[in-house]
Amino acid sequence: SPAAFTADITPAPIDPSDSADPVSAEPVPSAAASPDAGVASAAPSANPAADALAAHPWATATLTDVTTGETFTIADLAGKPVFIEAMAIWCTNCRQQQARFTEAFGQLLPGTAEYVVLTIDPSENAKDLGRYEAERGFSGRYVVAGRDLSRQLEAAFGPNILNPPSVPLVFVSRSGEIEFRTGPEPVERIVERAGA
Fold first, then answer.
1. By three-state DSSP, how is residue 85 classified?
2. Exposure winner among 11, 35, 88, 170, fewest CB in 10 A?
3. What's the CA angle centered on 87, arms 151 and 182, to 5 degrees?
4. What are phi and psi of 76, to 5 degrees?
5. What is the rounded CA–CA span in Å between residue 16 and residue 160?
6. Which of 40-44, 88-92, 130-134, 151-155 is predicted least confidently?
7. Which of these, 121, 113, 123, 126, lies nearest to 163 by C-alpha position?
């Protein structure tokens, strides 16, 4: 049977003066790094990044886009760069970050990368979040995280993931490596990472 891969993502202490460096960058092991590499598997995966993400409850939670009603998981998006921002409607830092992502994604070919925006404020609902997104013309998949997903994110990345003004961002690379950081992302860096 195929081997299961997991990553222990333990957040490092946060230095608020250094938002340019990742707070935690724990790669998700690839099949090549596995002790079982080279061993024939009954069902080889077509998407190793999705397999790596499958070990994380936050990546396999069913999410609903508040604009389209489409359901998806982060693992469904594996194989392309995925940016996941935890936010709240009232957060001005979040609004500025979302404007930068909208500008950056306007420079990319459609489908190059994904931007998932999760409100983690338990008082916010899908209707208000959809209105917020539409009124500002932001791009991305806007989702109400809910209590369970918020707990899963906190367990994986620490309490700062639930602090919207710190502009928490999870980045999943094409290969399934996961990085958590806080602070604003410049447009140029978003474009660069989306093309990586």
1. strand
2. 35
3. 85
4. -60, -25
5. 11
6. 40-44
7. 121
